[in-house]
Amino acid sequence: MNKGAKIAVGIWDVFYPLALYYAVTIILMFAAQLIFGTENEKYMICEILASAITIPIMYQSFYKPDKTFRPFFTSIKVSSLVEKSEGASGNKKEKVGNVLCIVGLAALIGIGLNNLILMSPLATMSGGYEEAASHFYGGTFALELIGSAFLTPILEELVYRGIIYSRLKYLVGMIPAMVGASLIFAIMHFNIVQFLYAFLLGFVLIVFMEKTGHVYGAILGHITANTIAVVRTETGFLAATVDKSAAAWSISTVCLVLGVLGLFFYIRKKS
Q1: Burial of residue 43, with CB atoms counted within 10 A of its CB: 0-12 exposed, 13-18 middle, 19 or more buried
Q2: Three-class DSSP category at 212
Q3: Phi/psi at 27 (5° precision)
């Protein structure tokens, strides 16, 4: 196979899963909205149904090596979900430590980063963000926890870190893959506020996956960040940290700095 053909195959291997993911979710969302309606309060019900069906479709298509149809979908093996990497921890105590580190770091970085972006002029400049927020926070608290805080992180991590990042890493190496996968993840949020947040958070989630040797690290970090976002939106928790006061800016900055420093030590920690 010549170089041009290899590049074409590589591009196909990276973007075909993304195309399938969006095709399936768009079709399912359209069907669900025909049944339940398009009102904001019904959006999360449709999102939950679409995610609940898409998760097994993506898993069966790209993660199950025993499926006979799998070679049609991929020519690069996705190993991050079904196999441990060299850095994966096999010790139960270390796994518990990993979980605690991921939850704590995702909380600090998520809160700090989210606060600073929301207090910046970007939040008021992005109509797309306001529309997205009205969809994701237009349902009941329970539905938002199921959809935004649980199912959506699982689905997105299976796709963006488990498949897209893993394949880019195979093709171009770790650092370019981190940039590429995070950029794709950010672009697919379709507004400047979530673009910046998703791009930076994407790097953090890749670190979690690399350190655990398993996509569960990224899923757990994403669930933590999204759960905090849902809770703070629906309960007013942390409202004082986004009121644009000096204290709010200071608290948010400290959270982010502590989270980044903690991430640095987590990266250096031996697995």
Answers
A1: buried
A2: helix
A3: -65, -45
Q: Are 185 and 198 in contact (CB under 8 A)?
A: yes
* Backbone Cα Rg of the chain: 19
Helix 92-119 to helix 192-212 angle, to the nearest 10 degrees? 170
Contact residues for 102 (Cβ-Cβ < 8 A; gap 6+): 208, 212, 217, 220, 221, 224
Q: Distance between CA atoms of 271 and 269, rounded to whole angstroms?
A: 6
pLDDT digits (tens, 9 = 90+) for 40-79: 788 999 999 999 999 999 998 888 654 433 333 444 445 4
Provide the total of helices (H) and of strands (E) in the chain, helices listed first: 13, 0
φ/ψ (deg, to 5) at 74: -155, 150
Q: Say how far apart CA 259 and CA 108 lie, in whole Å.
A: 5
Q: Environment class of residue 203 by beta-carbon count within 10 Å: exposed (0-12), middle (13-18) or buried (19+)? A: middle
Residue pair 201/113 in contact (Cβ under 8 Å)? The answer is: yes
Q: What is the distance between the terminal CA atoms of the chain, rounded to a whole angstrom?
A: 39
CB 115 within 8 A of CB 225: no
- Give the Cα separation of 164 and 155 in Å (integer): 12
Tens of pLDDT, residues 111-167: 999 999 989 888 777 666 777 777 777 778 999 999 999 999 999 999 999 999 999
Instruction: Give which of 52, 57, 15, 49 is closest to 30, Cα–Cα.
Output: 49
Nearest 5°: phi and psi at 83? -135, 150
